[in-house]
Amino acid sequence: MLLTYKLKNGLNVATYSIPEMRSVFLWMAVKGGSIFDTKDTAGIAHFGEHLLVQGIPTLPNVEDFSNFLESLAASYSAATSPQYIRFSINAPAAHLSKITRIASEVFFSPLFPQDAIERERRVIVEEIKEKQDTLEYKIYQFFAQNRFTANHPMQLETAGDEKVIKKLTREDLVKWWTTYFYPENTYLVLVGGFKNDQGRQLIEEFFAKYPALEKKLEFPKFTNQYLKDRYVAIREDRKLKTTYLDLTFPSIDESQPLEERICRALVKNILGGLRGSRLYRLLRQRRGLVYSVGAGSIAYQRFGYAYISSQVAAEKLEEVIRLIAKELAVFYKTGPTQEELDFAKNHHTNRALMHWDHPSAIADWIAGDLMWEDKIYIPEEYVDLVERINLKDIREFIKKYWDFSKLGLTIQGPVENSKENRKKFENLVAEIK
User: Fold this and answer.
1) What CATH number does residue 292 fall under?
2) Per-residue pLDDT at 23 exceeds 90
3) Are residues 202 and 228 in the same domain?
4) Which residues contact 420 (CB under 8 A, 6 or more apart)?
5) Which of 158, 183, 208 is the last residue in one of the domains?
6) What is the pTM of this model?
7) Rounded distance between C-alpha atoms, residue 11 and residue 13, angstroms
8) Mean pLDDT, rounded, for 76-88
């Protein structure tokens, strides 16, 4: 049974009781992730998230904290994403009271011990260095520098900037915490083996005492206008044995109606999200030109973009780009077939129903709706929305949100970064308009 409510202090709650389960999963988050970082504070959200579990009033250091939870056979994790910071605990249902108390202290009474700050500072610096050694880091950095305008938060690494991390003080971190961690900006989801009235009683007991701040968080005003205009960018790297290809263009953001975002999910599956998608069949199954190819989208509250990505042998790069450009241009003009839409809807609805087979997955679903939607959609309600989507909806979605005037082609690998090559690739994607 699903129950949603707000405490008097504004804290947002959803509980989902599955009495026959022997475990409980508690998930909570505040809006305010790395997308709120600036060049001068790059990594403060990540640093702060590390410190949430380094000491609370009843467990004043990280050893006490982790040892106590493990003594309950519980596990916990914390993470920073661009739009929120979250903390979760999975534990035997018999310990629901204990983990609810701990969760309340993690978000609203962290101690920020100075010795933990210095220790985690060193840990994060090493984490940053490890990331910088990876190919994924180099690939993303070049992509972000070309895709986004200067000072866009997506050019910053969530892990942070080493120079910034070394300078942040306890005062900086506490100020960051007070900016985002208040009841009206907090979302709590509890799933598993308990009764909803029991869950509500414990949440009231441990969370209601924190005062409301009566303020509303405003997201940074970065929209799709902050995606650069049409471009081709090449990073020549002769050490790579394959070529990394990313074709991107502005699309729908997360603030738009759910029905339109469902269209986005269906288009992804039809174009490049499944093994039966157009691009996978064309490039992998029929021609054997690539090992993998995918299509999808990255979206936040105020901006979003669609992408097609692949890894391609340098000698096949022109052919692959030509085929992708032709397929995308045709898809934009005509949209999918009824058969493709039916297949995508069947896949999407059944995956949605399967999502409710595990408490952590249920919590993720409920949390997403609790934070961003006007209501929580149970699977049957969501499936009903999917089933209503028709070909006209899909075609209107594509025409409304895809903006090829800001189409970007990023190529990284053993390909010469020359004026002639950039012009050649510009011509190959010219029909996408």
Assistant:
1) 3.30.830.10
2) yes
3) no
4) none
5) 208
6) 0.94
7) 6
8) 98
